[in-house]
């Protein structure tokens, strides 16, 4: 089994457990590949999360730098002594703005013997985190004119900037913008404005097919997917969506089925932030890949003497893995 995206409490403030314990759990479960991908450091205090702030801005930013350097050293030690899962080291990119995307590129160039790939993710829209809590998500939507369609457009345009400037090998949680969307959020389907339930033209966002409702949003999704496919990128099926009580992993079925129809390749990730998250909901993800997406194969990374290769396994073969005895 494989995971291409993980974190630990040692190197990210919203994580829980030690990196060694995360890897030990992956070994215990029988993972063949476990990628270590802590967040790259952020450069601007406006992107610090509440739990990272001590009131000393320069010190807080330097702490992120120190943690990342320690992570790379620690991950290398784990990789050299690993007797279970194969370890590939990467980082998760903070696609906040052009400065951070350029910094991500420089980190990849500076540490080629450590960072073998990156997970390209967007966690901020209009400089506001969209996956931290409900208040921040709501504020990000307000900055987009309190318009859900514009919010998605802003997200997809930032994602496209990340894709074109960095070309991340793995694209993280493609449709993260939906994570904290309230169940009863209503929009005007003509404009995308958020309005009260019961207002003329109001429709619950959960009842909408986003791609069919708004052609301009669909065109941006198609554009982003086409670009990922053009440079050989991989889209992760990220089970954190299931862990956080969404119907599907990331990307949800509407986006994943479209990506499949265009020829996209998928990898699997648990996006673990704690020992209890390792391999979480993989049984549900298998059902999603097999019965909902009807995938024929799943891809994964392989380290061939320091050079990464992309390999695949059929879903039928995956089903026969002893890994599923964990569930």
Automatic annotation (TrEMBL):
<dbReference type="InterPro" id="IPR010140">
    <property type="entry name" value="Histidinol_P_phosphatase_HisJ"/>
</dbReference>
<comment type="similarity">
    <text>Belongs to the PHP hydrolase family. HisK subfamily.</text>
</comment>
<comment type="pathway">
    <text>Amino-acid biosynthesis; L-histidine biosynthesis; L-histidine from 5-phospho-alpha-D-ribose 1-diphosphate: step 8/9.</text>
</comment>
<dbReference type="GO" id="GO:0005737">
    <property type="term" value="C:cytoplasm"/>
</dbReference>
<protein>
    <recommendedName>
        <fullName>Histidinol-phosphatase</fullName>
        <ecNumber>3.1.3.15</ecNumber>
    </recommendedName>
</protein>
<keyword id="KW-0368">Histidine biosynthesis</keyword>
<keyword id="KW-0378">Hydrolase</keyword>
<keyword id="KW-0028">Amino-acid biosynthesis</keyword>
<dbReference type="InterPro" id="IPR004013">
    <property type="entry name" value="PHP_dom"/>
</dbReference>
<dbReference type="GO" id="GO:0000105">
    <property type="term" value="P:L-histidine biosynthetic process"/>
</dbReference>
<dbReference type="Pfam" id="PF02811">
    <property type="entry name" value="PHP"/>
</dbReference>
<feature type="domain" description="PHP">
    <location>
        <begin position="4"/>
        <end position="240"/>
    </location>
</feature>
<dbReference type="GO" id="GO:0004401">
    <property type="term" value="F:histidinol-phosphatase activity"/>
</dbReference>
<dbReference type="InterPro" id="IPR016195">
    <property type="entry name" value="Pol/histidinol_Pase-like"/>
</dbReference>
């Amino acid at each position: 089994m494989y995971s291409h995206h993980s974190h630990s409490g040692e190197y990210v403030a919203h994580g829980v457990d030690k990196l060694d314990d995360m890897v030990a759990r992956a070994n215990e479960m029988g993972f063949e590949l476990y990628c270590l991908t802590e967040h790259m450091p952020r450069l601007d205090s406006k992107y610090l999360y509440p739990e990272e702030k001590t009131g000393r801005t320069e010190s807080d930013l330097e702490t992120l730098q120190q943690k990342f350097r320690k992570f790379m050293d620690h991950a290398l030690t784990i990789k050299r002594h690993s007797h279970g899962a194969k370890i590939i080291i990467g980082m998760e990119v903070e696609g906040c703005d052009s400065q951070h995307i350029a910094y991500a590129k420089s980190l990849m160039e500076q540490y080629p013997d450590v960072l073998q790939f990156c997970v390209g993710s967007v966690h901020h829209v209009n400089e506001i985190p969209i996956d931290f809590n409900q208040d921040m998500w709501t504020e990000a939507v307000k900055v987009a004119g309190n318009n859900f369609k514009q919010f998605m457009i802003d997200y997809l345009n930032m994602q496209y900037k990340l894709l074109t400037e960095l070309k991340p090998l793995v694209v993280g949680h493609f449709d993260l913008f939906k994570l904290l969307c309230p169940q009863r959020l209503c929009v005007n389907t003509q404009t995308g404005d958020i309005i009260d339930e019961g207002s003329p033209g109001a429709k619950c966002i959960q009842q909408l097919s986003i791609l069919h409702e708004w052609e301009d949003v669909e065109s941006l999704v198609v554009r982003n997917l086409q670009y990922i496919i053009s440079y050989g990128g991989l889209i992760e099926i990220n089970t954190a969506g299931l862990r956080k009580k969404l119907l599907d992993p990331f990307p949800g079925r509407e986006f994943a089925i479209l990506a499949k129809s265009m020829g996209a390749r998928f990898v699997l990730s648990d996006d673990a932030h704690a020992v209890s998250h390792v391999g979480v909901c993989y049984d549900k993800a298998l059902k999603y890949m097999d019965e909902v997406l009807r995938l024929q194969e799943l891809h994964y990374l392989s380290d061939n003497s320091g050079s990464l290769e992309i390999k695949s396994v059929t879903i039928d073969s995956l089903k026969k893995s002893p890994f599923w005895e964990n569930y």
